[in-house]
Structures are given as structure tokens and as C-alpha cells.
Amino acid sequence: MKKVRITQIKSVIDRPKDQKATMVALGLRKINQSSEQVVTPQVAGMINKVKHLLKVEEL
To answer: Does the keyword Lipid metabolism apply (predicted)?
Structure first.
């Protein structure tokens, strides 16, 4: 399956609770922290929800 590397580039301070929870679910807690995920419909939806806080690279 297709994999992506997700890197947090902006802070979650002053963001809604659901966006903060989505970032934690993606495995991101700090700026410049990266996580590799297999792209499923669920993960794609989470990425889309917080795309303004992320940098996404295909592997």
C-alpha cells in the first residue's frame, strides 16, 4: 500500500480540540516531528482535516 511521511510544521496551540486530537492520532505531538502512515481512507481524512498544520511527502 501507499505510504506517506507526515511532518508537523505548525503548532496546535489555539486550535480546536478535534484538531489537537487528530494530530495525536496521527502520532504528532511536536513541531518538526514526523510519522509514517499507510494511506487508508481514515488516515487520508485525518490528514485532510489538519492539512494546514502538516507537510505530507509520498514514500
So the answer is: no
Rounded to an integer, the average pLDDT of 41-55 is 97
Q: Amino acid identity, residue 46?
A: M
Residue 35 binned pLDDT confidence (cut-offs 50, 70, 90): very high
| Rounded Cα distance, 47 and 31, in Å | 16
Domain boundaries, the chain: 3-58
Q: For residue 19, what is its C-alpha cell?
A: 484538531
Angstrom distances, CA of residue 13 to CA of 18, 29, 36, 38, 42 = 12, 11, 23, 27, 24
Query: Per-residue b/e over 6-23, b at no fewer than 16 CB within 10 Å?
Result: bebeeebeeeeeeeeebb
